[in-house]
Specification:
Elements (H helix, E strand, L loop, with lengths): L7 H12 L9 E3 L63 E7 L7 H10 L5 E4 L1 H6 L1 H9 L3 E4 L12 H19 L5 E2 L8 H9 L3 E2 L4 E2 L8 H11 L5 E5 L6 H16 L3 E2 L2 E4 L1
Helix pairs in contact: 2-8, 5-6, 7-8
């Protein structure tokens, strides 16, 4: 997202999102198989099947290399039309998911990628199409490190204020930009401001995407201070928690620094930092 979104429109959008109610929990999530203790498999698993090292391994891990055993590239069957986004992923076990919105941004995304690479963990990046168009190399860097790229609309509008055609354009153009850059479409999307409606769920499903919300909002877009961001993540930590932060849309220096502080703490506390790549 090119412009900062800290004004009254964001607060209005957040009130709309809260009015939609709590999200439904995922019943079965196939987690990123590389977010476990791993060494490169001797033989590749069948397409769509988790590799053997997904089963029965302890929780502490490091990835060697970052892209080892990444999920197969495929276009899954069209998902069902949800009535609420996924807010937490309880079936991941003692694991958490870190997500970053609004990029890719040359000012802040590289710092976040460097920290994730240092600790050999993966995250989810919900990107805006206009940013993908401007910075395709950064999108490729995300994918090269094995991160999951999701759809966050083209220009970060308030979705409930758009017509069906407008929603389709925002989501469809972004999915097309991601696919043309990475060679595969996104499997997840997140509504800007967390403001969803029936049309967005229907159109997202038609485009082959599942809706992802969050459990812990760092509110880093308010630039509350690095200490506050770190505290919010650590206090909200728990199995299946999805953390929302930002790598664009304003001054995100606090977000970059905070990640470098709370990520090693989460790992020391025994959390796997993982990504989902399918819902069954």
């Amino acid at each position: 997202m090119k412009n900062n979104h800290t004004g009254p429109d964001r607060r209005t959008a957040l009130r709309i999102a809260l009015g939609l109610g709590a999200a439904t929990a995922v019943h079965v999530v196939v987690a990123d198989p590389a977010a476990t203790p791993t060494r490169p498999a001797e033989t590749s698993p069948a397409a769509g099947a988790p590799p053997a090292n997904l089963r029965g391994r302890p929780s502490a891990y490091r990835l060697e290399p970052m892209t080892a055993n990444t999920p197969p590239r495929y276009r899954p069957a069209q998902p069902p039309v949800r009535t609420r986004p996924f807010e937490e992923l309880p079936d991941l076990g003692h694991a958490m998911v870190l997500t970053f919105d609004d990029g890719p941004d040359p000012l802040h995304t590289p710092g976040i990628l460097a920290t994730l690479r240092k600790h050999r963990v993966r995250a989810m990046f919900f990107v805006c199409g206009e940013m993908v168009e401007a910075h395709p190399d950064l999108l490729r860097a995300m994918a090269d490190d094995g991160h999951v790229v999701g759809n966050h609309s083209w220009s970060h509008p308030l979705i409930p204020g758009l017509s069906r055609a407008g929603i389709r354009d925002e989501l469809g153009r972004t999915s097309d930009a991601i696919e043309s850059t990475l060679g595969m479409p996104p499997l997840w999307y997140r509504a800007p401001y967390g403001a969803w409606n029936r049309n967005s769920f229907e159109i997202g499903a038609e485009l082959g995407m599942e809706p992802m919300a969050w459990t812990v909002d760092t509110l880093d877009w308010t630039t509350p201070g690095t200490d506050t961001i770190v505290r919010r993540v650590l206090e909200g930590a728990g199995p299946g928690v999805v953390v929302l932060s930002h790598d664009s849309g304003g001054d995100r220096r606090q977000s970059v620094v905070a990640l470098g502080r709370y990520l090693p703490r989460l790992l020391e506390d025994g959390y796997r930092i993982t990504v989902p790549w399918g819902v069954t």
